[in-house]
Amino acid sequence: MIDDKPAIALLGPAIQNGQGSIAATVAGSLAANGYVVIVTGKGHTATSAATAATGYGGSVCVVTEPDAAPEDGPGQGRTIMIRPSQLQCTEAILEHADALVVLPGDLHALATLLQVWSYGTTTDEPYRPIVLLGEAWPMLIKSLASAANLDQQQRAMVTFATAVDEAVESLRYYIAP
After folding, report:
1. What are residue 38's DSSP bridge partners?
2. Residue 29 and residue 177: Cα distance in Å, rounded?
3. Alpha-carbon distances, residue 83 vs 18, 92, 111 (angstroms)
4. Do residues 102 and 131 touch, judged by C-beta distance below 8 A?
5. pLDDT digits (tens, 9 = 90+) for 1-22
6. Considering the entire predicted model, what is its pTM?
7. C-alpha to C-alpha distance for 38 and 27, rounded to whole angstroms
8. Which DSSP string corresponds to 59-108?
9. How many CA atoms lie within 13 A of 78 on its CB side?
10. Which among 14, 32, 46, 72 is least buried, having the fewest CB atoms inside 10 angstroms?
């Protein structure tokens, strides 16, 4: 929760690879539905998401790495924390986000997903629901879950969505604005 509103982290590739428009659509829909949008650092996904969320009158929080000054980020949010490593940026996300939406696109998104998933399978780390947006995730997650020998409860941390509306609606199951 941020400012007494449910906060959703939107994670995706930093480079421009077509995910910017999806990030903007997701962030706009989240903002329109009353969620605060959390993005990480600078990059195309974060910039697109921040611009769209604020365009819908929503709030945006930016989690940055130490070499990214606040003015280097999306610019339309407020910087809530500067952390010394990418792993600690993910920790900051977990401290503030009530759930996460992860777009496909790069190794960073996958690494962050695995870190969040790993945290959620321990008893003393924060559980956060994860919505994976895109058609490629189910097969990848099935393989990862099988290789990691995850049980049904651990697999249930992940929800799949193929469309933006489906992703945002599935969040209402976990936390409503």
Report:
1. 9, 61
2. 12
3. 28, 8, 18
4. yes
5. 888 899 999 987 766 555 558 8
6. 0.80
7. 9
8. -EEEEE-TTS-GGGS-SSSEEEEE-SSHHHHHHHHHHH-SEEEE-SSSHH
9. 6
10. 72
